[in-house]
Amino acid sequence: MALTKSASDPHIISLASAKYLEQNFPFSVVIATDSTIISAGRSLQKLLKDVKGKRFSEVLSIIRPTNYLDGFEGIVALQNTLVILAVKNRSDIIFRGQFIHIAEINTAVFIGSPLITEIEKLNELQLKIGDFSFFDAIPDMLQLANMRKVANEDNEVLFRKLKKEQQIARANEKFYKTIVNSINEIVFRTDKEGNWSFLNPAWESIMGYTIEECIGRSLFEFLHPEDVAKNHELFLPLINREKPYCQHKIRYVTKSKEIKWIRVYASLLYSDDNSVIGTTGTLSDITLEEQRQHDYELISNHVQDLICIHETDGRYLYVSPSIKQISSFLPEEMIGRSPFDFFHKDDQEAIQLAFVKMLEKKSKTADIITYRFKTKKGNYRWLETNYQLLWDAYLGREVILTTSRTIDERKAAEEKIMLALKSERQINQLKTRFVSMISHEIRTPLSIISLNAEALRLYTDALDDKIRKVVYDKLSEIDDEINTLTGLINEVLTVGKIENNNIEAKKKPGDILELLQQKVDKHNQLSENRKISITTQGEPFPIHYDASLIKQVFDNLISNALKYSPDKPSPEIHIAFTDAACMIEVKDHGIGIPKYFQKNLFNTFQRADNTENIRGNGLGLFIVKQFLDLHKASITCESVLNQGTTFTVTFPREQALHN
């Protein structure tokens, strides 16, 4: 018998269809597209008065699954899915079943029955076995059938009812098949030897076998060989009538030799004389669920990081097994407790602020915090935690996911480094004070020597020419040595200031071409035979620089170019102004710098092997690099041994304009 709508009102199913549903599916509910209850089964009407005409959500609420759409569309979307319903304001009445969408009349039907496992509950709800139908949630119906031993009177009614309903089922085979064929779980029946006597179409989609090739074969043929004995053991309490049903997980093997995890729900079938004639129930494919659970357990049990799920107030909902390795606590000892019970008191304020900020911003991006965590033994371990706010669709609320790892070794190393840095700073400060003191002490005798040398010159007029020349030469040598030593002292003091961050670049816009020309003119005046040339390219633009520091930079580079290229062509300076930068090349044709040494070029007290016979202290290029860093400028070197060296100083145009 097919469901049909009334000719007078498409909102109302035909009287015959309504009567059929009410009698054969006593707890059924027929729902219209506006979610109004059109019809209700006779037992549901007995249990819940006056439900017809009310909206579905006024009478019943869906508690599983939790994520569904409201209204008729949401109900249709749940068809072929196991659903759990609760009666509004009656939390003690729970229904289990599924929705079927009857496309011909665009109507939804709930087919199910109350979850009742005790005869006392049946009496409390004033229901009898006769109030149930053969079609009602097959496993639950079979479970109730087993209660006949404690309800003899109801048993007789049930047997008569079953016979009558079987006749009705045969008369309405088309509608029955529509329901059974829509279920995505395998509905089965076996004889008492365990041979399949009935399988619905879900068997073919899950197992890959046709129903015809399986009817009459033993269910044990389809079990995983390692699970045959286990399955027999799990069925024994049911076979021995020690319990009304059995429910367990077992492995089946499909036609393509694929292993499927199946959840079995089975009850016994009885004849009229109460003899066992077989079993019936459902088989649910839970392979994906088992795989996910396996993956989850594999990760949780073997990952070294601590993974936790928290309520938004911090309380632990889940703690991975790695907590034992980290703190000696067991996961179950942590559930429900606040992590603030374990944070070091000096870290709690920072953690509290971080979590409040996350909750206020509703940020779904991950952040990191480090803190000390108290172990079961009372000592503290350093943890680094990545925390993130998430929406848990299963719980229907926000939770916090944290992943933590121990960083004790890193913290110990950091502490050692900090102590070493502190010690190094102290040593550097002592060194700087010592160098400064020695430098000042040396300056005094140098000044006296210089004054005395100048005084000696005043007395050379009384000497004959030959002696006067010798004295003048010696006094000039003294002046040269004094200047060299004074330069060394000045550079040492400058290095000390750099190391203590006591040098500041006071930058102003200036003409770099003019500054370089002044430096070149100065050096050209001091050199009789060698003249440095300057060439330019591009349109000049102002550079922001500290004149005193940049003068020292190019003094050093030009001096080096002359000093390390004796008897060679004069050095050259080329200035290029581009859209991106101002680049200044100082090029000589001298002795060059060995390849291996170039990486140490800008370190203190570093001199190449080929400079042993040329005066220098290894500080000049270090100072050059530091002064250029203060201007966010760069310096590079290209050199070929015995062919020459080119230093390139680059001022980026952006820095030049906005520094």
Walk me through this protein's architecture:
With about 650 residues, the chain is of the alpha+beta class. It has 20 helices and 23 strands. The strands form 5 sheets. Strands 2-1-6-5-4-3 form a 6-stranded antiparallel sheet. The chain has a 5-stranded antiparallel sheet with strand order 8-7-11-10-9, sandwiched between helices. The chain has a 5-stranded antiparallel sheet with strand order 13-12-16-15-14, sandwiched between helices. The longest helix has about 50 residues. The two termini are about 90 Å apart.
CATH class of the largest domain: Alpha Beta
Structural category is alpha+beta
What is the mean pLDDT? Answer: 81
Cα(first) to Cα(last) distance is: 89 Å
Name the poorly predicted regions.
Answer: 1-11, 137-155
Count of discrete alpha- or pi-helical segments spanning 4 or more residues:
20
The CATH superfamily of the largest domain is known as Histidine kinase-like ATPase, C-terminal domain
CATH topology of the largest domain: Heat Shock Protein 90
Backbone shape: rod-shaped
Main sheet attributes: strand count, strand direction, barrel closure? 6 strands, antiparallel
How much beta, percentage-wise?
15-25%
Strands in their spatial order, largest beta sheet = 2-1-6-5-4-3
Percentage of residues assigned to helices: 25-40%
Considering the chains and any ligands shown, give keywords for the structure:
single chain; 659 residues; Beta-Lactamase; six-stranded antiparallel β-sheet; five-stranded antiparallel β-sheet; 20 helices; 23 strands
